[in-house]
Amino acid sequence: MKILIVNHFAGIPKYADFSLRHYYFAKYFSEKNFDCSIITSKQNYQSTKKIDSDSKIINNIEYFFVDEPVIKSKSLLSKSLRMFGFAFNLFRFLFFKKKLPNADYILASSPDLFTCFISYIYSVKTSSKFILEIRDIWPLTQVTVHNLSRLNVLAIILRAIELFLHKKSDLVISNLPNYERYLADHKIKFKRYEYIPQVIDINYYDKNYNTVKLDESHLNIFKSFKKVGIYAGTIGHYYGLDNIIRSLKFVKKDTAVILMGEGDFKEKAIQLKNDYGLQNLFFIDVKNKSYLFSILKKCSFGIVSFPEKDFYKYGIASLKMFDYLYAQIPLLILGPFDKFSILKNLKNKYTANLNDDKSIFKTINSLASLNFNEINDCKLESNKLINDYASIGLMKNHLDRIF
Questions:
Q1: Residue 400 C-beta-side C-alpha neighbours within 13 Å
Q2: Gap between the terminal Cα atoms of the chain
Q3: Residue 135 contacts residue 110 (beta carbons within 8 Å)
Q4: Distance of CA 232 to the CA centre of its chain
Q5: Burial of 390 by CB count in 10 Å (0-12 exposed, 13-18 middle, 19+ buried)?
Q6: Virtual torsion, Cα 266, 272, 274, 275, nearest 10 deg
Q7: Residue 321 backbone zone (phi > 0: left; psi -120 to 50: alpha; other: beta)
Q8: How many CB atoms lie under 10 A from the CB of residue 155?
Q9: Beta carbons within 8 Å of 231's beta carbon, 6+ residues apart
Q10: Which residues are 304's β-sheet partners?
Q11: How many CA atoms lie within 13 A of 371 on its CB side?
């Protein structure tokens, strides 16, 4: 059996490994003696490395790489141009450039619905069964996050593609825990739906993400403060980081917070640090996974933060959440994570109001005051949450049911 996975930004071990979901899929298919290949971009937005070839065998998985326009801006227009560019090049790759063996199944993944549309057309040409995966709901996400009008031409086109692909797909899958509710609420027609959770392969993580030496400036943070929390992800205004920064004026003097990542709010965040005269706020640029986990091992708690938006009721599978769980650190939960993600199953929750800096600093102080037994309880809960809701074995069970 031949399976082709198409994802604009598929995870690539050693190159762009922030999300290895489809690599895990491919390894599962390999274990079943299915022939599986992945098509993705030469330039993943999560990596500074550009793939310099059209194909590579990586850990016995065949990857094909398609070029796209590289735009540093993260605006909606820039995202749209990258989507169009990749989809156009994918069309040329599939229909004119690369002669691929006909696949029995073609699995195409969002958020890039243009990529999924091209993949569907190719599945018709090759008489392959088509699987649509939704990991980010477009255009709903852009209507909500970027205030894109539902009457905008882009939103109308994306909505039409969304309805068409759901109707035509042999199977729809998602990593969003409540996506079936979205299908019902929006009266979307489909043939069959399966939930396949976002997972962590603990064995892969243990083998590939070794502890590395930290920069001296980063080590000094942990030498200077007794407790250090971390927000590792997109540094954007959308995530309420201004309130988190403001709360640091009131936390205990021996407690600091690291913002690790890039985003449109980073310059403003640095300005706020200076305006408030904060000596307990630090910034670290995007690093590889080994460096991230070496930082997380020294941190006292992690921060997950989303605003209270209605569309999160369809489920949250934020990648940073899984990194924190793997690192087994307590969590400051801001926003709807405790209602619509697997974090709702935690017994001991440390939550705060995203829009209330007083609520945030009080919870940070509580996290900074946890004793040994309370911290150990958090570690045990993290392990249980992964085993019960995000283990690689669970993913394989779901795929077994499909294939």
A1: 7
A2: 10
A3: yes
A4: 12
A5: buried
A6: 160
A7: alpha
A8: 18
A9: 239, 241, 244, 257, 258, 259, 260, 261, 302, 303, 305
A10: 333
A11: 1
**3-class secondary structure, 127:** coil
Tokens 């927000």 belong to 231
Q: For the chain, what's the residue count?
A: 403
Give the pTM: 0.93
Dihedral of alpha carbons 224, 241, 140, 316, sign = positive
CA distances from 53 to 43, 65, 355 (A): 11, 7, 47
- The Cβ-side half-sphere exposure at 203, using a 13 Å CA radius, reads 4
CA distance readout (Å), 316 to 73, 177, 311: 25, 7, 10
Confirm if 88 and 41 have CB atoms less than 8 A apart. Answer: no
Give me the DSSP letters along 301-355. EEEEE----GGGGG----HHHHHHHHHT--EEEESTHHHHSGGGG-SS-EEE-TT
Residue 341 contacts residue 317 (beta carbons within 8 Å): yes
Closest CA to 101 of 2, 190, 19, 21: 2
403 residues of the chain, pLDDT tens digit each: 999 999 999 999 988 888 899 999 999 999 999 999 999 998 766 655 678 888 999 999 999 999 988 776 666 667 778 889 999 999 999 999 877 888 999 999 998 899 999 999 999 999 999 999 999 999 998 888 878 888 889 899 999 999 999 999 999 999 999 999 999 999 999 999 999 999 999 999 999 999 999 999 999 999 999 999 999 999 998 999 999 999 999 999 999 999 999 988 999 999 999 999 999 999 999 898 999 999 999 999 999 999 999 999 999 999 999 999 999 999 999 999 999 999 999 998 999 999 999 999 999 999 999 999 999 999 999 999 999 999 999 999 999 999 8
Strand duo 227-232 + 255-260: pairing: parallel
- How is residue 307 written in tokens? 């605003």
Q: Order of strands across the sheet with 35-41?
A: 55-58, 61-66, 35-41, 2-6, 105-109, 129-134, 171-174, 193-195
Tokens 């909500």 correspond to 144
Q: Which residue has the tokens 């619509």?
A: 340
Which residue is listed with tokens 């690599």? 23
